[in-house]
Sequence to fold (231 residues):
Amino acid sequence: MKRVLLKLSGEALAGEKHTGFDEATVLGVARQVKTLVDDGIQVGIVIGGGNFWRGRTSENMDRVKADQIGMLATVMNCIYVSEIFRSVGLGTEVFTPFVCGGFAKLFTKDEALACLNRGKVAFFAGGTGHPYFSTDTTTTLRAIEIEADIILLAKAVDGVYDSDPKVNPEAVKYDEISIAEVIDKRLAVMDLTASIMCMENHMPMLVFGLEGGDSIVNAARGKSAGTKITV
Ligand code: UDP
Fold:
């Protein structure tokens, strides 16, 4: 793998606290990404916003406004994580799809590739910039745009199962499964829009558990026990 798009959920940043940031957890991610960059792998990152806010959190509020808050939550997450990454010696740039003043750079494919080619980590904050989308769709869109080799999907569970392992102790984990089957069986990997984008644009994925000190490094080195999603 030469170029990867790593997706972290917002909750992953919160660790045991479930909300906000847990510095030790993010430092662990930063050190692993440093190993990848030192190995010559280019890393783009999308982070969810669930540790602060989701558009669907509010039942009474206008969905467009609620989603805008969600997108801004992902900007806060990227600024935070980018700073922790810098503390371990990584170069970083935060890109947004809308103007954010001096906080971030406006995303363009060329600027993002220039950032990656300089060995810096590119953060894709602010989602797609549109409501009714998600950070899953942002992940597939940016991965396709930057021509990533694979999406590394870090999750709380260690792969894709035929049913929810938290509910069904008999659930069976897939080592490999096609994106078409994920869509047919409505397996909870990414939302449907994002999954279909991956299928149409031949973007493979690796789903793995974030837990453990080397999970991201192992995923990028093809040594993960997670689930490979083929296209
Ligand atoms: N969001 C959006 N458009 C996008 C990406 C995100 O409106 O292109 C909003 C949406 O409200 C979503 C929130 O941002 O609920 C946080 O993103 P997400 O729920 O995907 O984060 P995660 O669940 O992965 O933490």
Remarks:
- The pocket of uridine-5'-diphosphate is lined by residues 9-11, 48-50, 54-56, 66-67, 70-71, 73-74, 127-128, 130-131, 133-138 (CB under 6 Å).
